[in-house]
Design a protein that fits this description.
single chain; alpha+beta; 4-stranded mixed β-sheet; flat; RING-type E3 ubiquitin transferase; transferase; EC 2.3.2.27; metal-binding; membrane
């Protein structure tokens, strides 16, 4: 894409083919030949409110980070062209090309990001954000800190509520089974 500059680029190409199912007499689609190319450079996170231009954090190996930070900048679907010879071959082989989908996603220069990872002081001068050595998650997100934390707190609250409901339901079922069992024992003894 012209005049589009970024620090992370991901290009994916997928071929979509249709295969004929002779039992149901229908064409089923599937993806084949998925190709993905990733390009990245190290970049720096700078606070937009910072009055000191020397304060920044350098992001190392951004492709190792999880999180959805890429923006789709290009997408194209090219349909397969069919001729008479192609139709004959497709009938004999039972498969035909349908389309090629090309997508380009990019983290543009100047995008707003928040990073979670291990911050290391390199050579006593440069702060560097990298994947933690203890195997914890390394995250780059394109939202602000408050919305990221709110989303995770809401998810944790939902799981707490689900755990409580499951526990109460299990306790009620177990209590019902115990009462039913001892009720039958009392009736048999009388």
């Amino acid at each position: 894409v012209p005049r589009c500059f970024g620090v992370i680029q991901k290009i994916t190409t997928e071929e979509h083919w249709k295969h004929f199912n002779f039992a149901t007499r229908t064409w089923n689609s599937r993806r084949v030949n998925n190709k993905e190319t990733n390009n990245s450079v190290s970049f720096s996170l700078v606070s937009p409110e910072s009055y000191v231009p020397d304060v920044y954090v350098k992001v190392q190996t951004p492709l190792e980070a999880s999180g959805s930070i890429l923006e789709r900048v290009y997408s194209k679907v090219r349909r397969a062209e069919e001729g008479v010879a192609d139709l004959v071959l497709q009938t004999l082989s039972g498969e035909k090309p349908d389309a090629v989908v090309e997508n380009e996603e990019m983290l543009r220069v100047g995008s707003s990001l928040i990073g979670f990872g291990e911050v290391v002081l390199e050579e006593g001068q440069v702060a560097k954000l990298q994947a933690p050595k203890n195997g914890r998650q390394y995250i780059l997100v394109s939202s602000d800190y408050r919305s990221f934390m709110h989303r995770h707190e809401a998810s944790a609250s939902m799981w707490k509520m689900l755990t409580a409901v499951t526990g109460i339901t299990g306790t009620a079922l177990l209590a019902g089974a115990v009462i039913s069992f001892f009720g039958k024992q009392d009736r048999k003894s009388k």
